[in-house]
Amino acid sequence: MRLANIATGAFLLALASAILLGALDLVAGTLERGLPWYHSSGIFPAFLALALAFCSLKLMVENIRRKDGPGASPASAWHSAKMACGIFAWLAFYMFCLLPAISYFAATAIFASGLILFGVRKLMPSLLAGTGTSAILYLIFAKAAFLPLP
Amino acid sequence: MEHFFHSMFALMAQPDTLLVVFCATILGIVIGALPGLSTTMGVAMLVGIASAMPVEYTLGILVGVFVGGVYGGSISAILLNIPGTPSAAATALDGYVFCRKGEAPFAIRVTRLASVIGTLFGVIVLATFTPLLGEVALLFTSGDFFALGLMGVAMCGSLSSEESSVKGWISALLGMFVAMMGLDDIEGVQRFTLGLPDLFSGVSLIPVMMGLYAIPEVALHYCRPHREAAETIRTNFNTAGRVLKTVLKKIRLVFQSACIGIGLGILPGVGEDVSAWVAYDMAKKTSATPEKFGKGSVEGIIAPEVANNAGVGGALVPMLVLGIPGSPPAAILLGALMLHGIQPGPMLGVEHPEFLAHMVAILFLAMVFLFIGAHLILRPMLYILKIPLAYLMPIIACLAVIGAYAINLSRFDFVILFVAGVVGFLMRLMKYSPAPMVLGMILGKMIDVKFRSTLIYNDGHLSAFFTNPVSCAALVVIVLLFARTLLHGLKRNAKGKRP
Q: How many angstroms away from the CA of B164 is the closest CA of chain A?
């Protein structure tokens, strides 16, 4: 956690610098138009960027001084990372590939079955539950509530 | 006053509203009772779908789930010793002892009555204090709103982060930055849009909220050890009607806990979780039998349940009066109202004179349906708690996808949902609370506009913020929050250096 906090702090510091540069650009544009600085849309983001830079530095300093506590075992962290990547990849596949290509009902049935399979590891119950989930959602939102589905 | 009650009863007499609030409250109880699904996540999951409906339905769904969810957490806390929501963690300490004694129905009915009474206190405070505070708020200037908004975000950042205030502030600052994206209201120029036309009107709030709350819950479910299914609970459901007598005997405790719940509920970011623990702690300190706490004390289940449900009404008061929500679910509700073109704040009573009456009516209905619904759902709940969460996770993910799409009918919102989901997942792993980010996103634009309006009105003099008592007091609170965190950090470092 300690190293992750330091890395996050460094990333946020870089982000704050980028925001500050963008904000100062906006302030410069306002001044070029002959308006005073306090009219600028960049002034508040500039303050935000400075505050973010300060907080990032504090986060880094706090964690550089701190001793590292016991973390998760490498095997369990690796398993968690694999599962998380799998879930996000499956979600991306559903939203960006399945939904634009096939009907909502079919896409959701495939997605829900796959997601259940991740958890219960049994094919038939996953397929049945996934199709059932898709059917229920379709009936509730498309047929009863008349909501536009993706 | 007559008009207020007329509007209230007119809404309460509509069968469709009654049905919506009833179903939402039951759904809230189920969501709250399922370990791993919090009230905030439930409200966030449904906000997209609810916002696509008429405003009365939106209110009915979100308030119903909010009230039901806060209570529902106590059911699994008592039956399984697993709090369904963080606000029910204190209830589990004594509630599960009742379950082991075979008195689970008694404990569940006591918490049900305590939650109903807590919500009733919230309804009374909402109905009486909101108009009074609303009149005071009409005197506030732009500078006051800037300072109060900033104070709300800073307090939320300080109080909601479990590890360090700095992480809460980072979350809030990132939320405010996201709110800056898109067309600026004063200068009319594009800010931080990365040249993407889809960002010209800003980042949609609903996909971000769903991404921050619902998607990480799904991903984390597969990354952590699974909970055991509920064991068969052998118990006698025909308990005598001693519930009312038990709660009435503790009326001083009920009043004390309700005051704690409302008081803490009003503070931005504190919410029901902290209220429940503070009320539990206070109940123990003021009890004649503190040694019974943790061993099946009825006071130990009444206090947190009254406080967390009273906090619902408390959190809605600053949301309606100032546009600054008191808890994360209230922040989501605020976002949903803004999508309907309703801007809570001091002008709410002028622009939408019937809105407060509708809000009070729906909170009251949710309270009544909590009492009825919790009774009806007790036995089915024992079966629902046996369903593995793996079967429920796809429903959450699909509701998030439908909700993200339903507002703008734009596939670009999927991109926002996905990015917010990844960010929310990483935030949960790194112990950053998403609540300050959501609040920052909701209030960010208002804070920016009020800040510059004040400066423009005062020819750029920053002293304008310090000459007004309200803005000056709010800025002092912000400085104290920062100073407290810095001092705390210095003390911790000094301790660490000692041999």
A: 9
Going by pLDDT thresholds of 50, 70 and 90, the confidence category of residue A129 is: very high
Of B82, B48, B74, B50, give the one whose Cα is nearest residue B64.
B50
Would strands B182-183 and B190-191 be described as parallel, antiparallel, or unpaired?
A: antiparallel
Which member of A48, A134, A149 has the closest CB to residue B176? A48
A8 min Cα distance to partner chain B (Å)? 9
Closest alpha carbon within chain B to A111: B394
Residues A105 and A134 sit within 8 Å (Cβ to Cβ): yes
Find chain A residues with C-beta within 8 A of B496's C-beta. 65-67
Report in angstroms the alpha-carbon separations of B26 from B36, B209, B386.
17, 23, 18
The mean of the pLDDT values for chain B is: 85
Q: What is the pTM of this model?
A: 0.83
In contact, B148 and B454? CB cutoff 8 Å: no
Q: For B221-362, where are the E strands, in sequence order?
A: none
Distances from the Cα of B363 to the Cαs of A67, B7, B159, B247, B429, in angstroms? 48, 14, 26, 22, 34
Residue A47 Cα, gap to closest chain B Cα (Å): 10
User: Can you tell me the ipTM of this complex?
Assistant: 0.93
Nearest CA in chain A to B394: A112
Q: Of the given ranges (A136-140, B278-282, B492-496), which has the lowest mean pLDDT?
A: B492-496
Nearest partner of B325 among B26, B50, B24, B62, judged by Cα: B62
CA distance A87 to chain B (A): 6
Give the H/E segment covering residue B183. Answer: strand B182-183
Instruction: Report the residue count for chain A.
Output: 150
3 state SS of B293? coil
Q: Number of A:B CB contacts under 8 A?
A: 165
Task: Return the residue of B nearest to A115 by Cα.
Answer: B394
Closest CA to A10 of A59, A43, A44, A48: A59
Distance CA B17, CA B155 (A): 35
- SS3 for B80? helix
pLDDT band of residue A105 (cuts 50, 70, 90) is very high
CA distances from B398 to B140, B413, B432 (A): 43, 14, 25
CA atoms within 13 A on the CB side of B434: 27
Contact A148 B173 (CB under 8 A): no
The CA distance from B310 to B356, in Å, is: 17
Please list every residue in chain B whose beta carbon sits closer than 8 Å to the beta carbon of residue A1: 430-431
Q: Chain A residues with CB inside 8 Å of B493's CB?
A: 65
Q: Are A120 and B170 inside 8 Å of each other by CB?
A: no
Query: Which H, E and C letters describe B194-218, residue by residue?
Result: CCCHHHCCCCCHHHHHHHHHHHHHH
Q: Which residues of B touch A112 (CB under 8 A)?
A: 394-395, 397-398
